[in-house]
Design a protein that fits this description.
The complex is a heterodimer.
Chain A: H1 4-40, H2 44-59, H3 62-81, H4 89-115, H5 118-126, H6 131-161, H7 173-184, H8 188-215
Helix pairs in contact in A: 1-2, 1-4, 1-6, 1-7, 2-4, 3-4, 4-6, 5-6, 6-8, 7-8
Chain B: E1 2-13, E2 16-27, E3 31-35, H1 42-49, E4 57-62, E5 65-71, E6 74-75, H2 81-89, E7 91-94, H3 106-116, H4 122-135, H5 151-163, E8 169-173, H6 181-196, E9 200-204, H7 208-214, E10 217-222, E11 225-230, H8 232-237, H9 242-251
Parallel strand pairs in B: 3-9, 3-10, 7-8, 8-9
Antiparallel strand pairs in B: 1-2, 1-4, 4-5, 5-6, 10-11
Helix pairs in contact in B: 3-4, 3-5, 4-5, 5-6
Classes of the chains: A mainly alpha, B alpha/beta.
Chain lengths: 220, 252
């Protein structure tokens, strides 16, 4: 069984895992809307910029992005300025996961916006609304229900992918339990890890199911 | 005063020319019904008026103010979005597929545009919306979502929503075509009421009986041009053009 030190180590690992996933999903959802609108924009610059953003962050491994932020940026900074600069690993993790989630969520949000019937934008324009008013008051609110399921999916993926941060000196849930397993030679710690991951993802699944029902209240 | 005027309006989608030089003037208080087979350009004509489609060639005037002037798909005037928006706000539009906002209740559907476009006071907007909803006979449905209403009721809400912006002209794009036959009557009754109140109306319709009864002028479109126009008696009862005759024979 767990002693008190081990218990607290696991609690701390779980908190790190949760923190990264939650920060990433929140930033990802907010900036995802911005990038999605860029993709849908007729403005060439905005369109190209968001295309390249998604292209890079979806097209390279998450782990590589983490390494660039945590290992490469301090070296680039050193070469450029001659002074040293260290990235806090937690900040690096927040940044990498948020940037990555933004790319995935932008595509999800763009698809959700495009799935809204074109008649909605036409009716908004015919009533004298500007593009911005139509988007914020009519189109985007209708995507909420359609976004809940993929958002839950993304959060669950993020929660599991956070285990990558073990490579930048962070003790997340998986690394904590793995260390204990190696130190003691017991497999039971992997069971603890699995149980905690499942517990967290179950909560996400239940909460997101509820949210989806609630947001769909206007549908028959 | 002319409320709407089109001068030599052409519209192409790629290689397909849908409007081939349309001239039309609608005066205040006039009820104009546009009939014709599908693909004849009727709906496109309405959609060009409020910039849902941009014309390829020609000029459009709304209340004698130039709102669009183009040649070969190039602007010949500076299109200021705010001016165009305000000109188009004078044109109420009712769509075939209603296009109510599904995430808003009936009353919010009616108040949203006055609230965010005209920025009028919420109390005033709601009072006005309730008046309009009672005019279309739906005040008791004000807190329902559109999905709970029948097609006819949804279309009447759509009419109230358009009227809430105090348009000077109401355009109807086949307003009863998506409705079950037993629901057509209630929508036509609402439109008849509007016509009686002196609203300027431009109606694309297949309801020949309705056109005969309420229209001041009937326009028959075919192949992207106005083929024949005149009073309902002239066009619907004694058409001169062969194409009008054959169209009417097919649908009556």
């Amino acid at each position: 069984m767990l002693n008190e030190i081990q218990l607290w180590a696991i609690v701390n690992g779980t908190i790190i895992t949760l923190e990264i996933a939650i920060v990433a999903i929140i930033f990802g959802a907010i900036f995802g809307v911005v990038v999605a609108l860029g993709r849908l924009s007729k403005n060439k610059a905005a369109n190209t910029l968001s295309w390249f953003y998604i292209w890079f962050f979806r097209g390279t491994p998450m782990l590589l992005q983490l390494f660039i932020i945590y290992y490469a940026i301090p070296i680039i900074y050193l070469d450029a300025t001659g002074s040293t600069f260290n990235v806090n690993p937690m900040i690096a993790a927040f940044a990498a996961f948020s940037l990555n989630a933004t790319a995935y969520l932008a595509e999800i949000i763009r698809a959700a916006i495009e799935s809204i019937d074109g008649g909605q934008m036409e009716a908004s324009k015919a009533l004298g609304m500007s593009y911005r008013q139509a988007m914020t008051k009519i189109i985007i609110p209708q995507t909420y229900k359609r976004l809940v399921a993929p958002l839950g999916n993304e959060l669950i993926m993020l929660l599991k992918d956070t285990s990558l941060v073990s490579t930048i000196a962070l003790f997340d849930l998986l690394r904590t339990t793995k260390t204990m397993a190696s130190a003691t030679g017991s497999w039971i710690y992997y069971i603890y890890a699995a149980a905690i991951y499942l517990f967290l993802t179950t909560i996400i699944q239940v909460v997101f199911d509820k949210m989806e029902k609630k947001l769909g209240i206007y549908e028959r | 005063m002319s409320m709407v005027k089109l001068v030599n309006v052409r519209k192409s989608f790629g290689d397909l020319e849908v409007l081939k030089g349309v001239n039309l003037e609608v005066s205040q208080g006039e009820v104009v019904c546009i009939i014709g087979a599908s693909g004849s350009g009727k709906s496109t004509l309405l959609r060009c008026l409020n910039h849902l489609e941009r014309i390829s060639d020609g000029e459009i005037y709304i209340e004698d103010v130039l709102s669009d002037k183009r040649a070969k798909n190039k602007d010949l005037m500076k299109i200021d979005p705010v001016t165009v928006q305000s000109l188009c706000a004078d044109l109420g539009m009712v769509f075939q597929s209603f296009n109510l906002f599904p995430h808003l209740t009936v009353i919010d559907n009616v108040t949203i545009a006055p609230l965010i476009v005209k920025k009028i006071d919420k109390k005033i907007a709601e009072t006005r919306a309730l008046d309009l909803l009672s005019m279309v006979g739906l005040s008791e449905k004000k807190d329902e979502y559109p999905s709970r209403l029948s097609g006819g009721q949804q279309q009447r809400v759509a009419i109230a929503r358009a009227l809430a912006m105090d348009p000077k002209i109401m355009m109807f794009d086949e307003p009863t075509s998506a409705l079950d036959p037993e629901l057509v009557g209630e929508v036509l009754a609402t439109m008849r009421h509007l016509a009686e109140k002196g609203m300027t109306m431009l109606i694309v319709t297949h309801e020949i009986g309705f056109a005969r009864e309420v229209a001041d002028r009937v326009i028959f479109m075919d192949g992207g041009v106005i083929c024949e126009e005149g009073t309902p008696e002239e066009v619907l009862l004694n058409p001169k053009e062969e194409r009008t005759k054959s169209f009417l024979n097919k649908i009556l």
